[in-house]
Task: structure prediction
Amino acid sequence: MCRPAWARALTAAQRLSDLARLRRVRDRIDREYAQPLNVEALARGANMPARHLSRQFRLAYGQSPYAYLMTRRIERATALLRRGDLSVTEVCYAVGCSSPGTFSTRFTELVGMPPSAYRRRATGAAEGMPPCVVKQATRPVRNQEAPVAEPQLA
Result:
């Protein structure tokens, strides 16, 4: 059964409106990643129900708003850890995480090593490289999470 043209136009207009709101939500996460953000607050700001926001965000960007937020936080954390002047706990709080344990777990899942090991390995390793290259090379990729190391047989 075909829908009338006015119904198709209304649906297309709603999709465009939703995409614009989703872009604003993503931009807000990028800007305010260190602030306490949750899906309900983001949905209120976008004037959308929280479940609808989560569903539409996942369709548009391939991950939930929370996963996107954590990826941004971990991305910023890698930059702070490379500098080497902050402890792992200080970095955790600086990027907006409230639990060092959760921060460490998420960091390890996305980067492939704990934040303390990353800090030891990365301090000074990017010297002389342009910041844009370092950022691209170290960006966490949620959909291709870090591979699990093969166990070493003794």
